[in-house]
């Protein structure tokens, strides 16, 4: 595992002053004891994707997201930090997840709102572990995990991967005597076997299918999110870019054949951000090797920008 300082924050410069603010001339390197703000923490890993037999390349996703965020204009003052990347060395995914969790817990204890930049969706268990360490080892708190994804990621396998994260979380929560609260939004019936649907039912997973996540059904989608957020103490939102249609997000580990429209995904993210419960968010599966015209990176960056600016 390597903790590497982030680089690459460059972009268009129209002049000095807050009226010309963009991400690249606003964000600062995080330092210990910095005033609370929004902190980015990258997870440079695609070992979980490799183990899950996906197409590798997502380990460079965090840098691609930074490049796409750099020139986005900021219209209101905001405190932004970059804490760099936790890089997984070789095949040692577990050490990388543990290191990410340690740094994340430290940032959360300092009062920051944290955003993880993936990387494969193995970031999920790392994010959960960091949240659990920050919230404390007792069983007095409840955490709701909302996953925008085509896949449940509830696989049982000998080794952790990008497809096992929520199964790992379920076991960890049970061992700690806490409930497993998981809402999966954008799930594709075509991409998940009956075994996975049965497993989700056994674990009490709350599900919205991709076919239910459309503009005409938006009131029901909003109600689903509000009810879930209202039932827990804290909310963790994880965004797998493969939930979006392949023409919008071609640069992912497993492109969607159907997907949820960008407009609806944005509405889901904004509803979670404004819930008053959101503690941490991450974004996963950006694979720059397969991105076309940086479509996926630009889309992910816009979603992250809107999430951070709208967090209530």
UniProtKB/TrEMBL annotation:
Cofactor: Mn(2+)
MF (Gene Ontology): formimidoylglutamase activity
Cofactor note: Binds 2 manganese ions per subunit.
Positions bound to Mn(2+) 1: 121, 149, 153, 240
Catalytic activity line of the entry: N-formimidoyl-L-glutamate + H2O = formamide + L-glutamate
Record flagged with keyword Lipid metabolism: no
Spans annotated as Disordered: 1-21
Pathway in which the depicted protein is active: Amino-acid degradation; L-histidine degradation into L-glutamate; L-glutamate from N-formimidoyl-L-glutamate (hydrolase route): step 1/1
EC number per UniProt: 3.5.3.8
Residue numbers binding Mn(2+) 2: 149, 151, 240, 242
Keyword Hydrolase: yes
Keywords: Histidine metabolism, Hydrolase, Manganese, Metal-binding
Compositionally biased tracts (Polar residues): 1-10
Annotated SUPFAM superfamilies: Arginase/deacetylase
Similarity comment: family membership: Belongs to the arginase family.
PANTHER family: ARGINASE/AGMATINASE, FORMIMIDOYLGLUTAMASE
Main function: Catalyzes the conversion of N-formimidoyl-L-glutamate to L-glutamate and formamide.
Name assigned to this protein: Formimidoylglutamase
Lineage: Bacteria, Bacillati, Actinomycetota, Actinomycetes, Micrococcales
Name of the gene encoding the protein in the UniProt record: hutG
């Amino acid at each position: 595992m390597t903790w590497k300082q982030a680089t690459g924050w460059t972009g268009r410069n129209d002049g000095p002053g807050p009226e010309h603010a963009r991400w690249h001339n606003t964000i600062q390197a995080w330092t210990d004891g910095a005033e609370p703000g929004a902190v980015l923490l990258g997870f440079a890993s695609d070992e979980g994707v490799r183990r899950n037999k996906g197409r590798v390349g997502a380990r460079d996703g965090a840098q691609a997201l930074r490049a796409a965020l750099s020139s986005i204009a900021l219209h209101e003052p905001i405190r932004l930090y970059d804490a760099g990347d936790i890089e997984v060395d070789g095949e040692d995914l577990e050490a990388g997840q543990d290191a990410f969790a340690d740094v994340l817990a430290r940032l959360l204890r300092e009062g920051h709102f944290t955003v993880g930049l993936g990387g494969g969706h193995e970031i999920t268990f790392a994010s959960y572990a960091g949240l659990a360490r920050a919230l404390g080892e007792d069983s007095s708190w409840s955490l709701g995990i909302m996953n925008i994804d085509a896949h449940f990621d509830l696989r049982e396998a000998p080794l952790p991967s990008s497809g096992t994260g929520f199964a790992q979380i379920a076991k960890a929560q049970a061992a700690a005597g806490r409930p497993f609260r998981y809402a999966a939004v954008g799930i594709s019936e075509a991409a998940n076997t009956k075994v996975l649907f049965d497993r989700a039912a056994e674990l009490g997973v709350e599900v919205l299918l991709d076919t239910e996540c459309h503009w005409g059904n938006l009131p029901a989608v909003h109600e689903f999110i509000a009810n879930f957020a209202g039932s827990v103490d804290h909310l963790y939102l994880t965004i797998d870019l493969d939930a979006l249609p392949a023409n919008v997000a071609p640069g992912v580990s497993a492109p969607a054949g159907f997907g949820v429209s960008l407009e609806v995904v944005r509405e889901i993210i904004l509803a979670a951000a404004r819930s008053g419960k959101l503690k941490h968010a991450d974004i996963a599966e950006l694979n720059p090797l397969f991105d076309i015209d940086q479509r996926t990176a630009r889309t992910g960056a816009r979603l992250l920008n809107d999430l951070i600016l709208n967090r209530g």
